[in-house]
Amino acid sequence: MAILITGGAGYIGSHTAVMLLEKGFDIVICDNFSNSSNDVIEKIKKITGKDFNFYNIDLRSKSDIDHLFQTEKIDSVIHFAALKAVGQSVQKPLYYYENNLCSTINLLHIMDNHHVKNLIFSSSATVYGDKATPPYKEDSETSATNPYGQSKIMIERMLEDLHHSDDSWNIISLRYFNPLGAHSSGLIGENPQGIPNNLLPYIAQVASGKLPELKVFGNDYDTPDGTGIRDYIHVCDLAEGHIKALMKLKGSPGYDVYNLGTGKGASVLELISAFENANGIKIPYTITERRPGDTPLSIADVEKAEKELDFKATRTLQDMCRDTWNFQKSL
Length: 331
Ligand code: NAD
Ligand code: WQD
Prior knowledge:
Blueprint: E1 2-6, H1 11-22, E2 27-31, H2 38-48, E3 53-56, H3 62-71, E4 74-79, H4 86-91, H5 93-113, E5 118-124, H6 147-165, E6 170-176, E7 178-180, H7 199-207, E8 214-217, E9 229-230, E10 232-234, H8 235-251, E11 255-260, E12 266-267, H9 268-279, E13 285-288, E14 297-298, H10 303-309, H11 317-329
Parallel strand pairs: 1-2, 1-4, 2-3, 4-5, 5-6, 6-11, 7-10, 8-13, 9-14
Antiparallel strand pairs: 9-12
Helix pairs in contact: 1-2, 1-8, 3-5, 5-6, 7-11, 9-11
């Protein structure tokens, strides 16, 4: 029996695929390469020395998903596939709702038809919106400030309803905080198309000379150095979180939600310093206006994941900066 990884050619999916293969799990990956490419599939095979089946399908096509489930013996699904650019979701809400919601509904229908009812869903700290007070606990109030975040809240609710309707569904929603870093091989990592929206990919492109300088979005927040604070977590720690969640699904089924973060925050200026120290490269920056929609502080309460999943992130900010740069240099 295999674990299906949707969106497995993407940033977090590819790192999770590597870890699952290294731990001896059988996997199948599907992806439509809307934000990734086939060479990632080859690199996962190269890193692990293992083979697996890949399907180039779009989850908006129910018949393509059905074909996959008819062909493969799947017992669990880790559902990463989604569009994730916050700004683009504001410009193209229907595209986001169609891709993220319809894909998930299609997948759930086909899973149900094939009696596959173990699911791990990629949710996000974005569901804590702008109403909850950090550090965020899993039962903190949720709200959305954009269609991307709304799609995550809607899917979480849908999954909870599904479990209530039929308790043979075993589902975990993982709310990732801010993933950074790359695999230590330097072969896979985050390689955004166009100008990066996120902080560390932007810093890495400044370091490589692709971009002239970083713009720090505001230094007048109510934080110790005035810049925004986030809970950055290494993508390989995140990958481990999925393995822990799989173990939990098997050992004690049900519907549950977990934060995956470190429980510690770093400011924009601290991340710049960590990058400079880890890699010996100076990052030129200027302070500009706040970015609309940004919150001053986002930090996970990690107690539930520690207690119930036995999950604790171990990699440091320096590790994240070193591995990101190692990957960036290989591009
Ligand atoms: P990513 O864009 O690198 O990976 C997503 C993958 O899904 C891509 O390879 C893309 O081609 C594929 N995909 C998208 N729509 C598809 C469809 N309809 N059919 C088939 N494949 C499709 O993103 P990521 O950073 O790896 O994120 C993975 C998941 O984690 C997403 O659900 C995202 O919303 C969530 N998440 C990401 C972050 C982050 O900052 N990276 C934070 C919190 C949550
Ligand atoms: C981090 C900090 C910025 C860029 C986003 C999504 C969220 C989640 C993760 C998917 C903030 C500052 C950034 C730059 C800067 N994705 N910054 N200059 O906004 O916390 O989260 O990615 O679920 O939904 O919103 O991450 O990396 O964009 O920003 O000063 O060029 O860096 O203001 O304080 P964010 P980020």
